[in-house]
Write a structure and sequence with these properties.
Belongs to the binding-protein-dependent transport system permease family. LivHM subfamily. Helices cover 70% and strands 2% of the residues. It is built from eleven helices and two strands; from the N terminus they run H-H-H-H-E-E-H-H-H-H-H-H-H. Strands 1-2 form a two-stranded antiparallel ribbon. Strand 1 and strand 2 form a beta hairpin.
């Protein structure tokens, strides 16, 4: 059928794979944003810089410490998550009772600081990060060639995204988190340390961004601009899915990645704006987003 349209199947499935990979990063990053906004009501514009910082920490662990990719997948989210906890305690915690604009301005400023420091230190040319030997090569599926590492990125993203959704939506810990955002006084009466829970929640959201940064490091060059180029699209994904909707962030992230890939096949000129066109249409008919709840 696609050959009748003048589109080779290899080109179609290749672009769908690229779209699915982009969607994997959209999903993880928008999930972190949704967790932070949905549970803390903070618009975290530092998220792109924290994603980029995760990729840089992975590169530093390999270059200066000799710790490879698999160690980075474990250590980087912890390291960057701890920096997020420090930021939340020292700065963001002071803004919870203020308008959302103050949090946005603070986190935007922090993003510029992180990006500027790394740009001054390492430049903008990009630093290579090798694919781990266990995931080198690929599989010939007949209709397309699937690089092993790209397949791993999609699988790892699905596991992390739906694992996070399950914890927040289906476990007692998730119930405590949701209750703490709606009635912290009542939750505190049960002996739960609400401020600590909020701090750890922000740290977890930041850790998700860092995890995505490690996954991205072997695919894209590690450079200070990699987060700035992505965060605007991720915010559009969050708005389409519904601000604060965990499931909406996941489904919309993967779905829009595929839509972007298909657009590159049928109408390449529109591929860079298709997500924003969809956002405008969704906001016209459903201002709360596809999965958002109307206040």
């Amino acid at each position: 059928m696609f050959e009748l349209l003048g589109i080779p199947p290899q080109a179609l499935f290749g672009q769908l794979l690229l779209g699915l990979i982009n969607g994997s990063f959209y999903a993880i990053l928008s999930l972190g944003l949704a967790v932070i906004f949905g549970l803390l009501n903070i618009i975290n514009f530092t998220h792109g810089a924290q994603y980029m910082f995760g990729a840089f920490v992975a590169w530093m662990l390999l270059t200066y410490g000799g710790l490879g990719y698999w160690w980075a997948l474990i250590l980087v989210p912890i390291i960057v998550g701890i920096t997020g906890i420090i930021i939340e305690r020292l700065l963001i915690a002071r803004l919870y009772h203020l308008d959302h604009l103050y949090g946005l301005l603070l986190t935007f400023g922090l993003a510029l600081i992180i990006q500027g420091l790394l740009r001054n230190q390492y430049g903008i040319s990009g630093l290579p990060y090798a694919i781990p030997p266990q995931l080198a090569g690929g599989q010939n599926l007949g209709f397309m060639f699937l690089p092993n590492y790209r397949g791993w990125v999609v699988v790892a993203s699905l596991i992390v995204c739906f694992g996070t959704w399950f914890v927040i939506e289906k476990t007692r810990l998730g119930a405590y988190l949701r209750a703490a955002t709606e009635n912290p006084t009542l939750v505190g009466a049960f002996g739960i340390n609400v401020p600590r829970m909020i701090t750890l929640t922000y740290g977890f959201g930041v850790a998700l961004a860092a995890f995505a940064g490690v996954l991205a490091a072997p695919i894209y060059s590690v450079n200070p601009n990699m987060g700035a180029d992505l965060i605007i699209v991720v915010f559009a994904v969050v708005v389409i899915g519904g601000m604060g909707s965990i499931l909406g962030a996941i489904i919309t992230g993967f779905g829009l990645g595929l839509v972007e890939g298909l657009t590159k096949v049928f109408y390449p000129e529109a591929s860079s704006v298709v997500i924003f066109v969809i956002m405008a249409i969704v906001l016209l008919f459903k201002p709360a987003g596809l999965f958002g709840r109307t206040a």
